């Protein structure tokens, strides 16, 4: 600690001293403290015990935080010197300073996620940007110091506390899973970009198990008698009848999501293998590497539903279904589809009440019902995985490579 030139609070700067060939350089760590609590031998702040006043405890916690940062910066200096040695670099003080200060600018979680959100919006990935926006917002509610956190502080204990916070907010396991998967994804990206390390990685084998949240989430699917009623009964209101037909279209199209239905265009219909197919990439995974398209043979039920849905309203431009009703692009289009989906979910809820279902009918139920119908009719799970375009891309791509569309065409006849 330098004991000259205190700041306006009367605190003194902690500096990193680097020397080589009798030359010295001092680097600011942006840490200040009271020299009364500085241990010159340990080169750390003194941590007291048995404190009673709130103010004294807060100052003590601040010293603990500063000691943690000093440890990190000291280790960073050692790592840089070790790298110079491994690469046989005859380094200078300026080279060390450039390497060290460059790394100081890295590693801030909050600035990193905001920059990533900005990039996603600028490149048209509005859905993903909104996911990370939601994560940033909930983390700001959980942690009032999130803007100062470095990635190393987002460790297993931190994530466990975050999960407890979500539970106290009465968030269900699927909501908690949503946030945890987003957090894992941004940390993985930061590691890949060199902004974080795996030293404090909070997930994986010995970390927080997101898969356990998957097990907690009940997948709701329609009982057979409800499914039959949806297929054979008509609603008394036009908007509910529209929702019913859209739900059945999703069901017969392997549980296609609402956003994927909205984006379907006439160009997604192709003719091959002596039949017509809907061929598309899921919006959720289309930007992931080695993702392959989903192929859906247009059966009589699917073609009939396409024709009947057009009777409610003629599709706009070259869209296949009458979901998008404005000529927007980018973020405005995403918001339009989101609002349309909310209405769709509302119509489904009213439809379930009309039909006397003791069941919460949602847009996801068609996907879960489709999967259960296939499983209950002894369709192997590998085929079901391919049909659903499962998120486990390594497994899914294995199935896509080994299975041709004719096998799927036969499998889905049980729907």
Please explain how this structure is put together.
Keywords: DNA recombination, DNA-binding. The protein has 415 residues and is mainly α. It folds into three domains: 12-104, no CATH class; 109-216; 224-414, Orthogonal Bundle (hpI Integrase, Chain A). 53% of the residues lie in helices and 9% in strands. The chain contains 16 helices and seven strands. It has helices at 54-86, 93-104, 109-122, 126-142, 156-168, 173-192, 210-216, 224-232, 238-252, 258-263, 300-312, 330-354, 365-376, 381-388, 393-402, 405-411; strands spanning 12-20, 23-33, 38-39, 44-45, 269-272, 275-280, 294-297. The strands form three sheets. A three-stranded antiparallel beta sheet has the order 5-6-7. α9 packs across α13. It is elongated and about 85 Å long. The N and C termini lie far apart (73 Å). The model is unreliable at 393-404 (pLDDT under 50).
Question: What keywords describe this structure?
Answer:
7 strands; 16 helices; 415 residues; 3 domains; elongated; two-stranded antiparallel sheet; mainly alpha; hpI Integrase, Chain A; 9% strand; three-stranded antiparallel sheet
Order of helices and strands: EEEEHHHHHHHHHHEEEHHHHHH
Say how many strands there are: 7
CATH superfamily of the largest domain: Intergrase catalytic core
* Class by SSE composition: mainly alpha
How many individual domains? 3
Mean pLDDT equals 86
Strand content: 5-15%
N- to C-terminal separation?
73 Å
What is the CATH C-level name of the largest domain?
Mainly Alpha
Largest sheet, strands/sense/barrel? 3 strands, antiparallel
Question: Looking at CATH, which topology of the largest domain would you report?
Answer: hpI Integrase, Chain A
Helix content: 40-55%
Q: Enumerate the spans where pLDDT stays under 50 for 5 or more consecutive residues.
A: 393-404
The gyration radius over C-alpha positions equals 28 Å
| Overall body shape | elongated
Organism: Tangfeifania diversioriginum
InterPro entries: Arm-DNA-bind_5, DNA_brk_join_enz, Integrase-like_cat_sf, Integrase_catalytic, Integrase_recombinase_N, SAM-like_dom
Protein name: Phage integrase family protein
GO molecular function: DNA binding
């Amino acid at each position: 600690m330098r004991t000259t030139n205190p700041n306006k609070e009367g605190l003194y700067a902690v500096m990193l001293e680097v020397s080589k060939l009798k030359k010295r350089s001092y680097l600011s760590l942006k840490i200040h403290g009271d020299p009364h609590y500085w241990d010159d031998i340990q080169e750390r702040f003194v941590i007291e015990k048995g404190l009673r006043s709130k103010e004294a405890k807060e100052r003590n916690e601040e010293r603990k935080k500063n000691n943690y940062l000093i440890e990190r910066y000291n280790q960073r200096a050692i790592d840089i010197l070790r790298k110079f040695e491994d690469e046989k670099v005859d380094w200078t003080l300026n080279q060390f300073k450039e390497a060290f200060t460059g790394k100081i600018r890295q590693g801030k979680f909050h600035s990193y996620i905001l920059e990533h959100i900005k990039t996603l919006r600028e490149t048209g990935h509005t859905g993903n940007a909104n996911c990370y926006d939601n994560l940033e917002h909930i983390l700001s509610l959980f942690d009032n110091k999130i803007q100062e956190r470095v990635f190393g502080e987002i460790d297993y204990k931190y994530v466990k506390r975050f999960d407890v916070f979500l539970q106290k907010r009465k968030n269900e396991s699927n909501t908690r899973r949503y946030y945890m998967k987003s957090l894992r994804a941004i940390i993985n990206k930061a590691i890949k970009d060199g902004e974080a390390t795996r030293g404090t990685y909070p997930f994986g084998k010995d970390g927080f198990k997101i898969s356990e949240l998957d097990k907690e989430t009940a997948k709701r699917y329609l009982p057979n008698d409800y499914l039959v009623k949806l297929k054979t009964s008509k609603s008394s209101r036009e908007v509910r009848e529209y929702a019913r037909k859209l739900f059945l279209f999703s069901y017969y199209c392997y549980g296609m999501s609402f956003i994927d239905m909205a984006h379907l265009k006439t160009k997604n219909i192709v003719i091959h293998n002596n039949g017509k197919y809907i061929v598309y990439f899921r919006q959720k995974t289309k930007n992931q590497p080695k993702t392959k398209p989903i192929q859906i043979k247009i059966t009589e039920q699917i073609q009939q539903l396409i024709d009947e849905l057009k009777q409610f309203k003629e599709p706009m431009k070259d869209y296949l279904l009458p979901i998008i009703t404005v000529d927007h692009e980018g973020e405005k289009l995403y918001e339009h589809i989101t609002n349309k989906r909310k209405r769709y979910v509302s119509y489904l809820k009213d439809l379930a009440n009309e039909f006397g279902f003791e069941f919460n009918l949602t847009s996801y139920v068609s996907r879960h019902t489709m999967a259960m119908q296939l499983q209950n009719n002894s369709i192997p799970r590998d085929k079901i995985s391919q049909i659903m375009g499962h998120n486990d891309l390594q497994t899914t791509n294995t199935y896509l490579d080994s299975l041709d569309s004719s096998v799927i065409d036969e499998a889905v006849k049980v729907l």
